[in-house]
């Protein structure tokens, strides 16, 4: 997902940032306490000689609205900031993903009850609330991506992330910059990875926590500065126990198969399609649910469709549902494996191969009469 894609909703969403100094809602403070408790639980599982460290994973430092507050309140933590050493960002390291040690004040255990801890947790809760509002906009850039727990130094973790971010496209010799830090990318692909792949992704990192990203119909594209966004639960990616049966460990830079690679890059398309439904005033209950969207994405990607053609494929697949709502009848999305629709699809795909500049939607409209 490129930064250009991340800016794609600028014309249909409003910035939603709480007023400075606002007291964060209790559910975000609860997420902070859960984070601290998770850290201490993981710490107890490691040998005493290997203390666990926690790092904030940021999408970038340049332009990061949290950079100033962190620098002012926790300069010692910021002095340990480590940019991921990626050649793509050579000479402009502030634009690279980076790690900042989590200030100790944010990780005090539940028995600690000090003003310093309370203020620190309020700051983190505000950051989480801001991040959640960005996530609710679906394609808005999120600067605070995750919290990583690892016994390794920031330098070692950053070196591992640099390798993770240099992925070869499955079935090719082409390498691409992989946005592992984006929680939308990570959360779409993580459930599809095997235990060995998940451990390879993490390296020495014990856990990778991020706020759960929305994946489903969009009810309303508008947002206001004082709108309330309930705190999402933590998405907790953690190391799997070693299997008694030796397994093949995939190379870090060839981590995913084709299906997993597609899943990792499916979030922008799915969210743009849901936005398209919402922009046209289609109720959330009439839009594809999460499972339906995932199935249609899988089918479209299986056909080799990408970008706008993939979006059009999903839209056209759902047209019978939209028509049935208008007509007051019950219908289903197009079954592309049914003989009549399979023939129409073959005609459309052939026409698209003959004229790559033609769009799937217009070609479908010209040929759906054959169904």
From TrEMBL:
InterPro entries: DUF4123
Top-rank taxon: Bacteria
Domain DUF4123: 55-199
Protein name per the record: DUF4123 domain-containing protein
Originating organism: Ralstonia insidiosa
């Amino acid at each position: 997902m490129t930064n250009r894609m991340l800016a794609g909703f600028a014309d249909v969403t409003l910035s939603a940032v709480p007023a400075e100094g606002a007291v964060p809602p209790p559910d975000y403070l609860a997420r902070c306490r859960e984070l601290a408790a998770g850290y201490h639980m993981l710490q107890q599982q490691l040998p005493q000689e290997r203390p666990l460290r926690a790092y904030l994973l940021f999408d970038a430092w340049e332009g990061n609205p949290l950079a100033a507050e962190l620098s002012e309140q926790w300069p010692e933590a910021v002095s340990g900031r480590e940019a991921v050493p990626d050649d793509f960002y050579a000479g402009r390291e502030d634009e690279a993903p980076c790690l900042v040690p989590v200030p100790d004040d944010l990780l005090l255990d539940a028995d600690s009850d000090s003003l310093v801890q309370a203020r620190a947790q309020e700051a983190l809760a505000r950051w989480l609330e801001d991040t959640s509002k960005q996530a609710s906009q679906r394609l808005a850039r999120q600067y605070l991506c995750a919290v990583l727990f690892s016994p390794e130094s920031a330098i070692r973790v950053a070196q591992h992330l640099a390798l993770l971010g240099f992925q070869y496209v499955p079935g090719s010799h082409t390498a691409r910059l992989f946005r592992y830090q984006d929680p939308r990318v990570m959360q779409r692909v993580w459930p599809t990875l095997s235990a060995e792949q998940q451990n390879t992704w993490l390296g020495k990192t014990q856990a990778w926590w991020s706020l759960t990203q929305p994946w489903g119909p969009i009810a309303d594209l508008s947002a206001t500065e004082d709108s309330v966004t309930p705190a999402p639960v933590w998405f907790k990616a953690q190391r799997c126990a070693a299997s008694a049966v030796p397994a093949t460990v995939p190379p870090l830079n060839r981590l995913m198969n084709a299906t997993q690679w597609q899943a990792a890059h499916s979030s922008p398309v799915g969210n743009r399609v849901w936005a398209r439904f919402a922009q046209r005033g289609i109720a959330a209950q009439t839009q594809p649910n999460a499972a339906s969207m995932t199935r249609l994405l899988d089918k479209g990607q299986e056909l080799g469709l990408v970008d706008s053609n993939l979006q059009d494929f999903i839209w056209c697949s759902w047209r019978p549902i939209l028509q049935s709502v208008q007509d007051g009848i019950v219908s289903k999305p197009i079954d592309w494996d049914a003989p009549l629709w399979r023939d129409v699809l073959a005609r459309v795909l052939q026409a698209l191969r003959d004229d790559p500049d033609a769009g799937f939607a217009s070609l479908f409209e010209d040929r759906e009469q054959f169904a």
